[in-house]
Amino acid sequence: MSEPRTGVFICNCGTNIANVIDVEAVRAFALTVPGVTVARTYRYVCSKPGQEMIIKDIKEHALDRVVVAACSPRMHEKTFRKACQAAGLNPYMLEMANIREQCAWPHVDGLAATEKALALTSAAIFRVRQQEPLEGLTAEMCPTTLVLGGGIAGMTAALELADGGHPVVLVEKAERLGGNLARVDLTAPYLDSARDLITERITRVQGSSKIKLMLRSQLKSLTGFVGNFDAEIVTDGGGEATARLGNVIVATGYKEFDAARVTHFGYGKLPNVITSFELEKMLTAGRIETREDRKPQYVAIIHCVGSRSAEFHGYCSRVCCMTAIKYAQEIKSAVPSCHVLDIYIDMNAFGKGQEDFYKRGSEAKTMFLMFGKNDYPFIRKADAKDDCDMLLVMDEQLSGKRIEIPADLVVLMVGMEARADSGEVAHLVNISRDKDGWFIESHPKLDPVATTTDGIYIAGCCAAPKDIPDSVAQARAAAARIMGRIAKGKIEIEAVYAEVDEDFCSGCRMCNELCPYSAIEYDEEKKRSHVISAVCKACGACVAACPSGAIKARHFTDKQIFAEIEGVLA
Amino acid sequence: MTFEPKIVGFLCNWCSYTGADLAGTSRIHYAPNVSVIRVMCSARIDPTFVLKALADGADGVLICGCHPGDCHYTEGNYKMMRRFPLLKKLLADYGIENDRVRLEWVSASEGQRFADVVNDMTERVRALGPSPVKMDLATDMAER
């Protein structure tokens, strides 16, 4: 290897870095390190003139390596890689030293901070010496999308893709489309009929020539990588199908919380304690009656059943508060003489039109009572002398008193929870779940429908409780993301992945089992393992574990990390 | 002059490195003794990285990864977790004190925790004094 020609660019970051670190000392130091051709400080290296300085130096000094000592690589690594590329240098010949977030900002002693900045810059110079030009891969993008789940989110995503002219395989576990929304009567806050919302979609899905609908079916396996997945789908009764896919949208929804778990409410024991979904059934049938076929005179609606609780789920299920207000209105209009009691912890009316809806509900002579978090009302059968079926005992927060309330019918607003099979689904498509079992998005704010597995998207309540507008928006967003990638035709795959040197591989297969992405295949004929580059996510678990040292983590090689260690301690 | 330990940190890209960045962004001040090397996942940390750092003169090595159950690569941190006791056994045989090499979980939102870990580790290593084994280990590794 001929002597490297490294350019070192030290950023003042206005005064952010230069106020703490002696940047001139870093520059002077850099020039003493063998292989450094040029070293400069600049006010803002990320600015346009800053980048132009790098480009000019690469060209003028024939630099083959660049170190930028500035902010975190998480901030501007892409920026500087692009600058290298613009000067005709392979972008992987760049290394950054994080002297802002991990040096200037958290340290106050200028001398010590400068010392650390020297170590970090030295590490980057040593490391970049060992870096190699890398090229990414490209692969074909199959235009077919697999949608898991035929609820409002799944159907919307499937139709969006089909309307764009792309084939879809829609897999639904149940025997009919519609999901949980099919169990609902009217929707808050505009009182649209849920049936209207889904019927149009069901009809269009069934009639679409682009959508292959598979009811009573489940995904059995998914292999491959973005643009090139292979799925096995099984249908009840033994049917099996395979499909080639480019992308997957997981829209598997939620399940309702099991009300019997909250013993205070006597659900399953007291016949007139029902869940919100059981009330929906009554509303759809147009008859609100107790088990004894009587019109209730007192209906109590209890919020947060299973939600916002220390014992069950800590999160808010988002849709129940407005649904409860809807029930109050519907019950009032069906049984005008009835007293409706709305028993809540906090009223969450966060969305468009919801505060107005709450206000209208409050004016409709509903009595609102507040209970404390984790201090549930207790329900018991009323005595014969009482004029009602049950009595609710609670510590009411607004009055500060312990009160008894009559009730003939109690409606439990059951929250949402992750489906029992969510772990299985996550495993099949290789995505993660949070502590509550919801699927995790790539970035909660900036990338809410993508996941950390390329080509796998999530939409609707499988990612967290949400209302219909949000579910629909996510479904369309996921479809739009996929259509953008289909339009591009080819997919680019990052150059950072693991590689097996077959000459060193002993065929022990230890790495096969270690890989969380099943990216390592074993060739029975050659008796060697190899990495499917496009599936590899570059974690490096196999590299550290290989007993023969046969696996190389591109851009994170042993040589590069050893050099970095030497540099830090030089 | 008090002894200032040199500690090498190996941090996973997704949780701990981001958490360390957050400590800086939040202007949480901590000891300047840990210099960080970024890896994609704690599972990438080959025990030889730790040995190499100690052999090259580090007074301590700090490894940080995502909390168990939170790994960006699903279960990489569990691999590190299992590897670590073996490494510690080996280090004990070399006579390297327990506090010199440490594994901690730091999430992307735990800037304060990262700062606390660094401060605590720095204090402990400072109390131990300079690493006594770097020369021995270097000779040993060269002979291998």
Query: Which range does the strand content of chain A fall in?
Result: 15-25%
Total number of beta strands of chain A: 30
Structural class of chain B: alpha/beta
Alpha plus pi helix count of chain B: 5
Could you name the CATH class of chain B? Alpha Beta
**DSSP summary: helix tally of chain A:** 15
> Globular, elongated, flat, extended or rod-shaped: what is the shape of chain B?
globular
Mean pLDDT of chain A: 95
Strand order of the largest sheet of chain B: 2-1-3-4
CATH class placement of the largest domain in chain A: Alpha Beta
* Second CATH tier, the architecture of the largest domain in chain A: 3-Layer(bba) Sandwich
Would you kindly provide a brief summary of this structure?
The complex is a heterodimer of chains A (570) and B (144). Chain A is of the alpha/beta class.
Structure, described:
The complex is a heterodimer of chains A (570) and B (144). Chain A starts with 5 loop residues before the first strand and ends with a helix. In chain A, 31% of the residues lie in helices and 25% in strands. Chain A folds into four domains: 6-134, Rossmann fold (3-Layer(aba) Sandwich), CATH 3.40.50; 145-254 and 418-490, FAD/NAD(P)-binding domain (3-Layer(bba) Sandwich); 258-415, FAD/NAD(P)-binding domain (3-Layer(bba) Sandwich), CATH 3.50.50.60; 498-554, Alpha-Beta Plaits. Chain A has 570 residues and is α/β, with parallel strands linked by helices. Chain B has 144 residues and is α/β, with parallel strands linked by helices. Helix content of chain B is 45%, strand content 16%. Chain B has helices spanning 16-25, 47-55, 76-93, 111-128, 134-143, and strands at 7-12, 34-39, 60-65, 101-105. Chain B has a four-stranded parallel sheet with strand order 2-1-3-4, sandwiched between helices. The interface between A and B is large, with 47 and 44 residues.
Features:
heterodimer; A: 570 residues; alpha/beta; Rossmann fold; FAD/NAD(P)-binding domain; 4 domains; 5-stranded parallel sheet; 30 strands; 31% helix; B: 144 residues; 4-stranded parallel sheet; 5 helices; 16% strand; globular
